[in-house]
Design a protein that fits this description.
This protein is α+β, with helices and mostly antiparallel strands. It has a single domain, classed as Roll (Ubiquitin-like (UB roll)), CATH 3.10.20. The protein contains three helices and five strands. The chain has a five-stranded mixed beta sheet.
Length: 83
């Protein structure tokens, strides 16, 4: 199972404060669908473009097609703008 880590603001809003849990998913896309099924609205929040996805320590701006290993760690982080 992939280990999922959410920011405190996401976990308070969608999961009742759980910010570290496990979900079975083979890709980020399937993970987001599962998150939305378990916590309605969370998938839309992840898809709105304000979050980056870190998979096993590597940050992706567009991770939807990335595959996950059973022991992957996936963190959803606010995007940081630069300029």
């Amino acid at each position: 199972m992939a280990r999922i880590i959410l920011t405190d603001s996401l976990s308070k809003r969608f999961t009742g404060g759980d910010n570290d849990f496990e979900i079975v998913a083979s890709s980020v896309r399937s993970l987001i669908r599962e998150l939305d099924s378990l916590y309605p609205g969370l998938g839309a929040q992840v898809n709105d473009g304000t979050l980056s996805v870190a998979i096993d320590g590597d940050i992706y701006q567009d991770a939807f097609l990335e595959e996950l290993n059973p022991d992957s760690e996936v963190a959803f982080l606010p995007k940081i703008g630069g300029g």
